[in-house]
Amino acid sequence: MIYGRSLFHIVASLIIFHLSGATKKGTEKQTTSETQKSVQCGTWTKHAEGGIFTSPNYPSKYPPDRECIYIIEAAPRQCIELYFDEKYSIEPSWECKFDHIEVRDGPFGFSPIIGRFCGQQNPPVIKSSGRFLWIKFFADGELESMGFSARYNFTPDPDFKDLGVLKPLPACEFEMGGPEGIVESVQIMKEGKASASEAVDCKWYIRAPPRSKIYLRFLDYEMQNSNECKRNFVAVYDGSSSVGDLKAKFCSTVANDVMLRTGLGVIRMWADEGSRNSRFQMLFTSFQEPPCEGNTFFCHSNMCINNTLVCNGLQNCVYPWDENHCKDQTAS
């Protein structure tokens, strides 16, 4: 009887040891997949006729330790359809914890998730609700497979089906620079970029002097169709006009000031035919970080602005240090 109990204890110990080893191995892999720095890859694409993108080395096995971000952008008033080829294989795992494809409905990694996919069955057809899809392919350090090939094309946005055949958008771009300037929607009409009845997708490129950055402050802002971002918005980009450099996007009732980290800012205004009363006015100020040079003014907010902007009747600093005591200076 004692012998039987001892044998039972030995067998039970071996089973527990085996299970703990298996659990540890799985934990080690999960830890590795979450903490190990992966090689970055991917692309931002908006080819008008659609296109194809694949996992690295497809149809051969993809390499380990990869994180590829693909962002697809459609033209205004279009949506995206995404198809995965049947020749598809990604390491299977519970809830696709390890190698996987993640698709989100929008341009960001925090946009609403559509699905996470792995295994041998290719994902179903995916349709966006708007102009963007964000796709991430992740591979950890173990068990590589064939990967995927995906094809995308663009379709009319059903939210605009009542408008019938839409006219091509007019070309609408502006170049600005210097120590300060005003960016405003009325420039579209003043400079003949579009008529009052046309939809517009306009961009203002602001280039600061060398070694300078840009501070943007809204002076006026109102969207005719508030909270309808498909119909009207003002967006701010930091460094280029690609979606990866999107800093802020405003389509509600409030727009906040924006501090850029580069010397190239891009302001974009989209307004469809029924939103042309949307408007904005924005002051841009070029600045350098301290220590301030002799021809600059210290704003007390990590900004040095050109001396010519002091007491000019516009607040160029984050706080109105540049306009304080101006009456005293004039009186003296």
UniProtKB/TrEMBL annotation:
Residues 1-22 form the signal peptide. GO terms for molecular function: ionotropic glutamate receptor binding. Residues 41-155, 172-287 form the CUB domain. Disulfide bonds join 41-68, 292-304, 299-317, 311-326. Keywords: Disulfide bond, Glycoprotein, Membrane, Phosphoprotein, Receptor, Repeat, Signal, Transmembrane, Transmembrane helix. It is found in: Membrane. GO terms for biological process: positive regulation of excitatory postsynaptic potential. The keyword Transmembrane helix applies. The keyword Transferase does not apply. It is a single-pass type I membrane protein. SUPFAM superfamilies: LDL receptor-like module, Spermadhesin, CUB domain. Gene3D superfamilies: Low-density Lipoprotein Receptor (4.10.400.10), Spermadhesin, CUB domain (2.60.120.290). GO terms for cellular component: glutamatergic synapse; membrane; postsynaptic density. This is Neuropilin and tolloid-like protein 1 isoform X2. It comes from Panthera pardus (Leopard). The gene is NETO1.
